[in-house]
Amino acid sequence: MTDLLNAILQGVLLGGLYALFAAGLSLMFGVMRFVNLAHGDFIVAAAFGALLLVDMLGLPPLLAVVILVPAFAAFGYLGQRLVLNRVMGRDIMPGILLTFGFSVMLQNLMLEGFSANSRRLNAGWLDTASLPLGPFQIGFVPLLMFTTALLVLGGLGLFMSQTNTGRLMRATSDDAQIVGLMGADRRHLFAIATAIASGVVALAGVLMAIKTNFDPSSGSIRLLFAFEAVIMGGLGSLWGTLAGGIILGVAQGLGAAIDPGYQILAGHVVFLIILVLRPQGLFPRQRP
Amino acid sequence: MTMTVAMPGRLPRSVMPVRLAILAAVVLAMASVPLWASGGSQRLLVEFMTYVALAQLWNLMAGYAGLISIGQQAFVGLGGYTLFSLAILAGVPPLLALPVAGFVAAIVAWPTALVAFRLSGPYFAIGTWVIAEVYRLGFAQVGALGGGSGISLPVGLVKTISADRGTRDSIIYWITLAACVAVIGCIWALMRSRLGLGLAAIRDDEVAAESAGVVTRRLKLQVYVICAGVTGFLGALIFLQKLRISPEVAFSVNDWTVLVIFMVVIGGIGSIEGPLIGCLLFFVLREQFSDWGSWYMVGLGALSVATMLFARGGLWSLIAPRIGFRLFPVARAAPRRPS
Amino acid sequence: MTNLLSVRNLDAFYGDFQALFGVDLDVEAGEVVALVGANGAGKSTFLASVTGLLPTRPGSILLRGANIAGEPAFRIARAGVAMSPEGRRLFASLSVEENLRLGATGGRKGHWSLEKVQALFPILKEKRRQGASELSGGQQQAVAIGRALMANPDLLLLDEVSLGLAPVVVRDIYESLPAIRAAGTAVIVVEQDIGRATEISDRLYCLQEGRVNLTGRSRQLTRDQIGAAYFGRARSAA
């Protein structure tokens, strides 16, 4: 029984990481009806970036975050302005196929640069530190992931409701065509959304690098996790994304508790069941 | 910049018999290959024709029905595993199991579609991928089929096709050729039919197609299920040749979907010639650059990114207007560039 | 002295379909111009062209003598053109006040502020926290006009503000027009009701099948003249 509860608890905390995976995907889809199929590969790229900065250059992990988040955000802004804005439109195919091409390019570039070996970021004392909670041990790293998710989602929520840019993003989600009438440049707005999403991706990548093993080809599965969290939570709902991430984390934790081979499969199956029973997700978008 | 439009009216009607004669000659020449070519080139051609068929099917779904799937490996794997299950567990002769494998894949595609169709656009694409992963992880749990490490087709069963390897290769070659020709022929005929126009309408504008009375959902479902069935048949054929199957290879997204998408995209989505050219280019490049390892895949990815940015109709959209001739005229426009 | 808006020989297309043919139209600063015409005459197409929602040939639309045709919508908005679009098009998941605030995105200075707009339509203050989609049709129309005013435009376009509203509500909406004029904003009103259009406007244009077929001072045009232009040949044939 304790084992089961522990599996659920660890799953909930892991759900924080999945919510971070999903937040960027959800934001970009909400604002521009666009899905970056290289999303997972960018998460892995951020993980390798952290590995480079921390393991090879000897910087503290926190400093790696301070460098990677703005770097990814800037890259996201420019990528949207220079490339992705050219494939935005009613026809979704070019965007899908373009980012699919990116995904394969990125995976193979990382393969070339870092070899196919599985890696993990050494975070020193952080890796083993934990808090006792009754019969359970809560690791610092999972706790950090979960609190980061809460902070990021809370911050995004504030941004969306309190800033004009955030309101414009919600407005774009409602009726993109007439946002221009408000005097807002859609291309800039899209780029800001991608910049934010990319910053969150960097954060998620660094945390993932501390938490689990990763290799150049492990981006695809992260895309699938992010996607499952978004759909289960309900499209366009930030806190739904956290709920989706938690459900996925718990399903995987329980699956793994039965048999390690069932970990990923259990997550997928729960996702498909929810998709069949509640295709609009658990918390479909409502007015904030 | 590049907007290609099919030009059925540009050539006189009398060209059609000439065109059919050319195609018949090509098919006959291809059919004669086992009589004179080496086993190695024969196997290469089998692989080529398999990819041509897979690319045509993916193009039918994406280029015409607007269904962008990243999960076709589900049906390649299902076809292969059905053949191996029937052969190993029930002793069904492999050649007989081939059509059954296609049938099973189509049957399974039905409920699969009902789940996947709850998602639309980009999320449909990722959803199909998740479902394929479920099949992969599921088959890895089946001990009777070797679990995660896979299983080989017993020699005794292989010998029921023919005791001689050369004869076996030839039989597989002819079946693959027939399948490839049938796929292209059927898609061509479909595109020239009223139904083909309906599909073109979906691809161009789903809302308009809906109001014009084309029942898009049902039509999409039919296309999805039929493509899955044929993909399953091809999957069975692929693994009948390999004689060994494992979940990693059978449900490989890279082998059965990523490469296929690159072929279609680079060659030209929304035409029959495009995927053909894409396959040809892919095989030529692979022979040239196979030593380059992952750089080769980086190049393919870059090529498809460039295609989407600069020439959405792919290579064929650059070639077709210059030569003013289409091998398979279907009166269909390539994807338009938004203004 | 150049006009605020000069439209010269404007053609507009939806794909291969031509919706406007050589339209000429002028608006002077502070003026109210009515645009009337039957359904499909091209009124909304004209407004979409002026606001940049529909791309047009450079040179065919000038704002204070400078070309705006072919510019993206957000530049035209920042140059001082705002619209209350047909069907109101409020942002459904945003509150009333958030909708209004978005109107000020362009950052233009001028008479209108959130307080002034709320004073013009007091209901917008009362319902400021409610979702825009929860309001009645007339209230939604007030939000749409208020949102456009928040941009402090030199030119305000009102597309079919009376559509689907009760006459008494329409009267309330149009009662805001003098205050809008007083702040120095010129207005183009697209209106189905000819009587109301002549009553509220200084000048009037009638569109028929994408062409201007009547224009003049609103007070000098007779109902019969406008009616004939409105229905075009169909009527003269009858």
Automatic annotation (TrEMBL), chain A:
<feature type="transmembrane region" description="Helical">
    <location>
        <begin position="189"/>
        <end position="210"/>
    </location>
</feature>
<dbReference type="GO" id="GO:0006865">
    <property type="term" value="P:amino acid transport"/>
</dbReference>
<feature type="transmembrane region" description="Helical">
    <location>
        <begin position="92"/>
        <end position="111"/>
    </location>
</feature>
<dbReference type="InterPro" id="IPR001851">
    <property type="entry name" value="ABC_transp_permease"/>
</dbReference>
<keyword id="KW-1003">Cell membrane</keyword>
<feature type="transmembrane region" description="Helical">
    <location>
        <begin position="61"/>
        <end position="80"/>
    </location>
</feature>
<keyword id="KW-1133">Transmembrane helix</keyword>
<keyword id="KW-0812">Transmembrane</keyword>
<protein>
    <submittedName>
        <fullName>Branched-chain amino acid transport system permease protein</fullName>
    </submittedName>
</protein>
<dbReference type="Pfam" id="PF02653">
    <property type="entry name" value="BPD_transp_2"/>
</dbReference>
<feature type="transmembrane region" description="Helical">
    <location>
        <begin position="12"/>
        <end position="31"/>
    </location>
</feature>
<feature type="transmembrane region" description="Helical">
    <location>
        <begin position="222"/>
        <end position="248"/>
    </location>
</feature>
<comment type="similarity">
    <text>Belongs to the binding-protein-dependent transport system permease family. LivHM subfamily.</text>
</comment>
<dbReference type="InterPro" id="IPR052157">
    <property type="entry name" value="BCAA_transport_permease"/>
</dbReference>
<dbReference type="GO" id="GO:0022857">
    <property type="term" value="F:transmembrane transporter activity"/>
</dbReference>
Automatic annotation (TrEMBL), chain B:
<keyword id="KW-0812">Transmembrane</keyword>
<keyword id="KW-1133">Transmembrane helix</keyword>
<dbReference type="Pfam" id="PF02653">
    <property type="entry name" value="BPD_transp_2"/>
</dbReference>
<feature type="transmembrane region" description="Helical">
    <location>
        <begin position="221"/>
        <end position="240"/>
    </location>
</feature>
<feature type="transmembrane region" description="Helical">
    <location>
        <begin position="295"/>
        <end position="319"/>
    </location>
</feature>
<feature type="transmembrane region" description="Helical">
    <location>
        <begin position="96"/>
        <end position="117"/>
    </location>
</feature>
<feature type="transmembrane region" description="Helical">
    <location>
        <begin position="170"/>
        <end position="191"/>
    </location>
</feature>
<feature type="transmembrane region" description="Helical">
    <location>
        <begin position="260"/>
        <end position="283"/>
    </location>
</feature>
<dbReference type="GO" id="GO:0015658">
    <property type="term" value="F:branched-chain amino acid transmembrane transporter activity"/>
</dbReference>
<dbReference type="InterPro" id="IPR043428">
    <property type="entry name" value="LivM-like"/>
</dbReference>
<keyword id="KW-1003">Cell membrane</keyword>
<keyword id="KW-0472">Membrane</keyword>
<protein>
    <submittedName>
        <fullName>Branched-chain amino acid transport system permease protein</fullName>
    </submittedName>
</protein>
<dbReference type="GO" id="GO:0005886">
    <property type="term" value="C:plasma membrane"/>
</dbReference>
<dbReference type="InterPro" id="IPR001851">
    <property type="entry name" value="ABC_transp_permease"/>
</dbReference>
Automatic annotation (TrEMBL), chain C:
<comment type="similarity">
    <text>Belongs to the ABC transporter superfamily.</text>
</comment>
<dbReference type="InterPro" id="IPR027417">
    <property type="entry name" value="P-loop_NTPase"/>
</dbReference>
<protein>
    <submittedName>
        <fullName>Branched-chain amino acid transport system ATP-binding protein</fullName>
    </submittedName>
</protein>
<dbReference type="GO" id="GO:0015807">
    <property type="term" value="P:L-amino acid transport"/>
</dbReference>
<dbReference type="GO" id="GO:0016887">
    <property type="term" value="F:ATP hydrolysis activity"/>
</dbReference>
<dbReference type="Pfam" id="PF00005">
    <property type="entry name" value="ABC_tran"/>
</dbReference>
<dbReference type="InterPro" id="IPR017871">
    <property type="entry name" value="ABC_transporter-like_CS"/>
</dbReference>
<dbReference type="InterPro" id="IPR003593">
    <property type="entry name" value="AAA+_ATPase"/>
</dbReference>
<dbReference type="GO" id="GO:0015658">
    <property type="term" value="F:branched-chain amino acid transmembrane transporter activity"/>
</dbReference>
<dbReference type="InterPro" id="IPR052156">
    <property type="entry name" value="BCAA_Transport_ATP-bd_LivF"/>
</dbReference>
<keyword id="KW-0029">Amino-acid transport</keyword>
<feature type="domain" description="ABC transporter">
    <location>
        <begin position="5"/>
        <end position="234"/>
    </location>
</feature>
<dbReference type="InterPro" id="IPR003439">
    <property type="entry name" value="ABC_transporter-like_ATP-bd"/>
</dbReference>
<keyword id="KW-0547">Nucleotide-binding</keyword>
<keyword id="KW-0813">Transport</keyword>
